[in-house]
Protein: ABC transporter ATP-binding protein
Organism: Meridianimarinicoccus aquatilis
Amino acid sequence: MLETHDLTVRFGGHTAVDAVSCRFHTGELTAIVGPNGAGKTTFFNLVSGQVFPTSGRVTLSGADISRLSPAARTRRGIGRGFQQTNLFPGLTVTENVRLAVQARQRKGGRLLRLAQSDKQMGRETDALLSDVRLERMGRRLAAELSHGEQRMLEVALLMALQPSVYMFDEPTAGMSAEEAPLVLGLIDALRRDASKSILLVEHKLDVIRSLADRIVVLHNGKLVAQGAPDEVMGLKIVQDAYMGQDLVNV
Ligand SMILES: Nc1ncnc2c1ncn2[C@@H]1O[C@H](COP(=O)(O)OP(=O)(O)OP(=O)(O)O)[C@@H](O)[C@H]1O
């Protein structure tokens, strides 16, 4: 289980995340919501290691990971999606996925050649490509894919690492109307895996409503509410934050 304990970070005089204590259980998708500037991205950065806390802790299965690098946290099972820097644009789609499969297996060394020689790795790569509907794009360079296809490839790379915690930051941003349901379907499938915990930062209410088992509300860096979607959606602070979106009837 992932937990934060009084997690706090200050930038100069500004407290971006303020004493947030929260548990993220396996088998649950938790949506982190709040108005612009509430601290959602900073909270994600604290969990995945891009930012270190001023005080407080992040623990995974009881172990303090607050001072580990992002790479070390990835090895422990924290998988954060949608950082396009994860892609190798000059390699093919298949090569990208194979490298991720291999990275998990930590064989090291001449990664690509080893990966290509391994039938089992090939099968796993094919399965992942099929999961993200890129099976016909395997020979294309990652750089040649559309924005939405690149994001699907990033999901495949993330899945290849088999994290215990998946973190998605606005996963459908910039996707076409045809592409968005694909990535949401994938997240929904991951959500059904009882051994995984999923954290989702999302502004779109329809996405939150269709995927979230639990909602955590941040406001001015503080955790101001948490609970089941039906309870939390009715709170005034959430109504105010999402003014203009149809909260009552969703
Ligand atoms: N590196 C930084 N240095 C200084 N201030 C920062 C830094 N990172 C974030 N902040 C500030 O912390 C606050 C929280 O920002 P954050 O991006 O986490 O909010 P958010 O909820 O993700 O907002 P949005 O929904 O607009 O993405 C903001 O006031 C922001 O300006």
